[in-house]
Specification:
The complex is a heterodimer of chains A (about 230) and B (about 250). Chain A is mainly α and about 230 residues long. Chain A has eight helices and four strands. Chain A has one domain. In chain A, the strands form two sheets. Chain A has a two-stranded antiparallel ribbon. Chain A has a two-stranded antiparallel sheet with strand order 2-3.
Chain lengths: ~230, ~250
Amino acid sequence: MAATVIRRHRLVTRIWHAVNAVCIIVLIGSGLGISNAHPRLYWGAYGANFDHAWAQLPRFPAWLTIPANYNLAISRRWHLFMALIFAFSLLAYMIVSLVNRHIQRDLRIRRAELSRAHLAADVRAHLALRFHDPEAPGAYNILQKLSYVAVIFILLPLVIATGLALSPGMNAIWPWLLDVLGGRQSARSLHFIAMAAIAGFLVVHLVLVILAGVGNELRSIVTGRWRVPE
Amino acid sequence: MTAPFIRRRTLIAGGAGLALAGCDRVIRQPAVREIVFRGEDMHRGLQRALSNRDALAPEFRPDQMSPRFRTNGTRDPGTADYAALRAGRFADWRLTVDGLVARPLSLSLADIGAFPQRAQITRHDCVEGWSAIGKWQGPQLGAVLRAAGLRDGARYIVFRCADLYGGAPYYESIDLIDAFHPQTILAWAMNDRFLDVGHGAPLRLRVERQLGYKHAKYLMRVTATASLDGIGKGHGGYWEDNVDYDWWAGI
């Protein structure tokens, strides 16, 4: 019996995914390099060596940072350049995905999916390494939807907003952003926390890609073609 | 069963590792460097398009100030010239205002104090990530420049300092938009006292919409120029010349 192949991801989704993957890796790497310049996190508007730090971060090793050697200037150059591509590509992806109804069709969470029974069934299915509903193999399962929605609509916008709030120039332009976030050092802490959550998503995402079958999943995000598991 | 799993995992981890190492390799290519370094201009252009050029940096109440404002960079220039000025409590110190100006000035601290004064409680953000809030007072740089009368063709204001970095005076520069910004002041007082040596006595720049390294301390000379070429290595500041920091440090 020939395997059924469906077109799973649209071109725009695939392009954004590729651009975003590169951006996220470079932004996290360069961001960890920037963190090494002052690895302390504070709450409030100010925070420096004599002030109370709620977190003392480890020194991130060379294999995680961009560049590998400590160079704050080059880390910042990468970070601020990629931040522009990252933020504007997310904006474009959101607009196009509203227009082509990707969001409404594939990411919309229905009330029934949030019932305890449905959630529990999906957790059990994941534990059994069954990720696809045989009735609708192309559809995202509820855990997938929840994590994608949380990343695309909460974490990525949060990491952009908190990043913008670190800019003294932007503070003059949009002072309300600092008020909402609780001051520049709070914004810096939230920026780090959002990054950590995105990194956590990245790890789980990659593990699930491996468990679901690297070849098939990679092909579908590159070419759009996905073979329905038997 | 585990062998392919490990191989795949290694493949993905290896891919990410290659991407990180790849960045180090490609940034050495002049063409890539040129593009990545252009990010600074894009951010400046976007921010200036989004804002009123005189948009003010946030100001704070006295109870919001840092209990202790750390020093950074040079804590004491330590040169014989500076030590002599300091021993005389800066009575012999003069700020030279020259370059593309109609009337070059030589200002004492009393002259600086005779200009209309601006006091502001603002946040100082170091490029490293920390912030401290302090109170600064002094004349607006714009008022000093108007007294000297900028000539046509002046586009940048260059600040030379008493402290040496790599044998040459620390220097910084800003454009006229920031030079004439209402919060850009030449501060001689910090937290209602004369500026101390650690924070740049007797006079420092405050350019509140940019990062800390732009706020030149130990000011000796303010020069209006048409270009940054021929000054230092031509990138507009000590850190910009020597470690690739952004000249426009608004982000």
